[in-house]
Amino acid sequence: MAHYPHSVTLDSQKCKGCTNCIKRCPTQAIRVQGGKAKILPELCIDCGECIRVCPHHAKKAVFDSFESIQKFKYKIAIPAPSLYGQINNLTDINFCLTALLDIGFDDVFEVAVAAEIISNATSILIRSGKLKYPVISSACPAVERLIRVRFPQLCENVLPFHSPMEYAARLAKRRAAQKTGLPRKDIGVFFISPCPAKITDIKHPINSKKSSVDGALAISDIYPCLVSAMNKIETPKNLASSSMVGVGWANSGGESVAISDNYYLAADGIENVIKVLEEVEDDKLNGLHFIELNACSGGCVGGVLTVENPYVAKTRIHLLKKHLPSEQEQSSDSNVEAELTWKQQLTSAPALKLSEDLNEALNMMHEIEKITSRLPGLDCGSCGSPSCRALAEDIVRGHAQESDCVFKLRDKVRQLAQTFETLNIEDI
Questions:
Q1: Phi (first) and psi of residue 63, to 5 degrees
Q2: 32: which strand partners?
Q3: Which run of H or E residues covers position 65?
Q4: Contact by Cβ (8 Å): 81, 111
């Protein structure tokens, strides 16, 4: 698997080696060795769970600074719908959009608008019967990467559409180029992001050579200046063109409701997502047409780069939707499906191969099974590996030893103590 920069990084100076992160990582991408955590880039899906649970703030997300927008002559903000859930008593999206112009952007384009177009295209495609059921949403990049690493056989079930973020960037650049006459290289599109997985999807997209998004700003980073600007607005500009359909994508279940198919399932939170994928893998959910999965609890409102409690934000989105039109007529090209569709199918990402040589890999696998059978099977994480099997694999790879298991070490110490006691008795 190719190495690429991840948005989730580790500050080793702050890390205390507490093992909280290794217990929550959904792909077992973290080890604690030498008293410090280590992220295995081949396995990391940038879900941000380690950021959420680290009590020492040793994990963090890397995102663009606000000053980076100045690299472009014409600057466009594309806010995620989850941004609206961070703002108290928001009844008019125009206040938020106008504030984005006031803090330095030249234009705004709502990701919610792109979400509405994608919802319609998805509904049409699902009804056509061309896709394999159940169709799994491709909106959450952390889920996409989880499927590639842990559930590769489900790659063909993933909806082959670009995310609303990506499509919004394309529409925004096209509109700006027509409006200003500027070449596209002078037009910068910046996503206001709730999570690190979307930032990684910009820097290293899975299904395209290059993202149309030029940078990502964290909601938590711009929130203070954004709210300050909103408080100064008396009459906002009429900029909003989204409806409750697109804004609803901020919450778990919003995408499913938008495609108007009753045979759907929506799950949020990485542990629940994994359980659903396991059931799909075991052919237990064959009656469903569509499955919406969000790695963060509550949906995108629960991203680690937000500022509000996800349940509070979720309620705010519900309240905001009461002030929005039920739907808006969104203009889109006739070839929208072709523009949305990936150029190539999602493929598995085989991570941490034991060996390129098949015979050697089989021997290593056999050794892993032997070592695992000798370990206690408690998966306590005290050794620095997330499970006993992971420790066995680390041992075979030469990154750990069996005595790293505190229970095996205790047994060795006990045996040594008994030996010394026996020697002492014989000396007497």
A1: -140, 170
A2: 37
A3: none
A4: yes
Interatomic CA distance for residues 422 and 172, integer angstroms? 80
Per the structure, how many domains does the chain have?
3
DSSP codes, 171-216: HHHHHHHHHH---GGGEEEEEEESSHHHHHHHHS-SSSSS-S--EE
Clarify whether residues 164 and 306 are in a common domain: yes
Instruction: Please tell me the number of Cα atoms within 13 Å of 49 on its side-chain side.
Output: 27
- Domain finish residue from 18, 47, 62: 62
Packing angle of the helix pair 388-397, 358-374 (nearest 10 deg):
130
Dmax of the chain from CA atoms? 98
Same domain, 100 and 179: yes
Could you tell me which of 231, 205, 208 has the C-alpha nearest to residue 216? 205
Cα–Cα distance between 145 and 131 in angstroms, integer? 20
Residues 419 and 381 in one domain: yes
Q: Tell me, what's the pLDDT at 2?
A: 47
Q: Are residues 316 and 396 in the same domain?
A: no
Write out pLDDT tens, residues 124-179: 999 888 899 999 999 999 999 999 999 999 999 999 999 999 999 999 999 999 99
Q: Give 210-222 as a 3 state SS string.
A: CCCCCEEEEHHHH
CB–CB of 242/164 below 8 Å? Answer: no
pTM: 0.90
Strand extents, DSSP E, 70-177? 74-79, 107-108, 135-136
H-only helix segments in 232-333: 244-247, 254-258, 270-281, 310-321
Side-by-side strand order, sheet with 74-79: 107-108, 74-79, 187-193, 215-218
Domain housing 52: 1-62
